[in-house]
UniProtKB/TrEMBL annotation:
Coiled coil: none annotated. One of its GO terms (cellular component) is cytosol. The keyword Membrane does not apply. GO terms for molecular function: eukaryotic initiation factor eIF2 binding; GDP-dissociation inhibitor activity; GTP binding; translation initiation factor activity. Residues 166-190, 268-297 are annotated as: Disordered. GO terms for biological process: formation of cytoplasmic translation initiation complex. Residues 296-455 form the W2 domain. This is Eukaryotic translation initiation factor 5.
Length: 455
């Protein structure tokens, strides 16, 4: 099958890596029953990461013709239409509903906000492109997405899934308790597990044959350590316990959390230990509460502070009204740590802000979206807000819940990330002004009242 570059603007680029199949059409019927069949519409839709029904509907709206996407995975459009004309319409569809408006990359996802606005989020540069409202296909996308969701939002469905998981875990715990009670009734004690020849006795007691015993985990064979007797020989019953030591907690954190968040929790735990030996309790998770101090302490006389240089560079570029994609390139080229880069961006955007903090965040949300392409970056942004709040004015601090709400509604921050950041910070013993002001908004998210109010 012949391939071509995605997008008319890239058709002559021999090294362009995004490809799609060339359109194959066929005219069927005669008279009033004539129609055009696009035989490989499913393959084209797969390459563009868009439903084939969207492309078929777009052709129908633009041509003013009845259309249908049938069970044979082909697109049918009433009337005789040549391939060149349909390929031109497909290029228009790609430009409007596939390519990023910032960098032109076709690697985008369709997002639908709570206010029923359709936008494209680019996986390459993070730019969020607003799709023109009022178009027939935009209305079709909104209607189709609403029917697929069945009246429930993505986050509401996620909460339902979490509830099912919790109920499943509770059922597992009840089953474990039931098994434990059954074991007690049959007289299986820890002394029998450790006694010589106790393995065979226990197998017989619980109704296991030697063959069944061979498939048990190694820790449960040959009188393993599970439920081992105390050194003084007390005949204690078998007990299942969770290791609450610091090392075990760190290990579980590393296994369950993402890399960035796991490092955050580990560093917070280490910091809580140091507080017992030191009176310096104002140090944040990533070094000093003021990121400038991290570099002022290391620099030598006559050398510039790289953090200050990055802040000034970002401010200078913002003064030249650069795009979000261009700003992303500026911060990506920095050699500073990821957290310091995010701190510098936040400081450059909102330095000395007071009343009107929320309005400034809304005005600059495209820059923040470009700097937050994934969940790990969302955590960095929340930490930057926390660091910034430690030195901003009281008026700005009061607007923290509205800032979080604005970033949440703009799909820059996800509900799960905000809740997780708050819970980790509180669990580590932190009680900053930012956390205190963020508490009402986080509680609203946790109680699921916020989304229902928005709907």
């Amino acid at each position: 099958m012949a391939l071509q570059n995605i997008g008319a603007s890239n058709k002559d680029d021999a090294f362009y890596r995004y490809k799609m199949p060339s359109m194959i059409t066929k005219t069927e019927g005669r008279g009033n029953g004539i129609r055009t069949k696009i035989e490989n519409i499913a393959d084209i839709a797969k390459a563009l990461d868009r439903p084939a029904s969207y492309i078929t509907k777009y052709f129908g709206y633009e041509l003013g013709a009845d259309n249908k996407f049938d069970e044979q995975r082909t697109s049918l459009i009433n009337g005789a239409h040549d391939t060149v004309k349909l390929a031109g319409l497909l290029d228009n569809f790609i430009k409007k509903y596939v390519q990023c408006y910032g960098c032109g990359n076709p690697e985008t996802k369709i997002l639908i906000s709570k206010t029923q606005m359709v936008s494209l989020k680019c996986a390459a540069c993070g730019f969020v492109s607003g799709v023109k409202t009022g178009c027939k296909l935009t209305k079709f996308i909104l209607k189709n997405a609403s029917e697929q969701k069945g009246g429930k939002g993505k986050k509401a469905m996620q909460r339902a899934d979490n509830k099912c998981l919790k109920e499943g875990k509770a059922a597992d715990e009840n089953q474990k308790k039931l098994n434990k009670d059954t074991t007690k009734k049959k007289g299986v004690s820890s002394k029998e597990f450790t006694a010589k020849g106790g393995t065979a006795k226990n197998n017989a007691a619980v109704g296991l044959s030697d063959e069944d015993h061979s498939i048990l985990p190694s820790c449960c064979r040959d009188g393993g350590n599970v439920g081992a007797a105390d050194e003084d020989g007390d005949d204690d019953e078998v007990q299942w316990q969770t290791d609450t030591s610091l090392e075990a907690m760190k290990q579980r954190m590393q296994e369950q959390l993402s890399t960035v968040t796991a490092e955050l929790v580990t560093l917070s735990t280490d910091e809580s230990e140091k507080k017992k030996e030191s009176s310096h309790n104002d140090i944040a998770v990533y070094g000093s509460a003021n990121p400038r101090d991290n570099y002022d302490n290391k620099q030598t006389i006559g050398k510039a502070n790289p953090y200050n240089e990055l802040v000034e560079e970002i401010k200078a570029n913002l003064g030249n009204a650069i795009t979000a994609a261009q700003l992303k390139k500026v911060i990506s080229s920095s050699t500073l740590a990821s957290q310091d880069v995010m701190n510098a961006l936040f400081e450059a955007l909102f330095d000395r802000v007071g009343k009107g903090f929320k309005e400034e965040v809304v005005k600059n949300k495209e820059y923040l979206a470009a700097a937050v392409p994934d969940e790990g970056s969302q955590t960095l942004l929340l930490l930057a807000i926390e660091v910034f709040g430690s030195k901003c004015s009281a008026l700005a601090l009061k607007e923290i819940p509205f800032v979080l709400r604005a970033l949440y509604c703009a799909d820059v921050l996800e509900e799960e990330t905000i809740i997780h950041w708050y819970n980790v910070a509180v669990a580590s013993g932190k009680n900053s002004k930012v956390l205190q002001n963020a508490k009402p908004f986080v509680e609203c998210l946790q109680s699921a009242n916020y989304e229902s109010e928005e709907e």
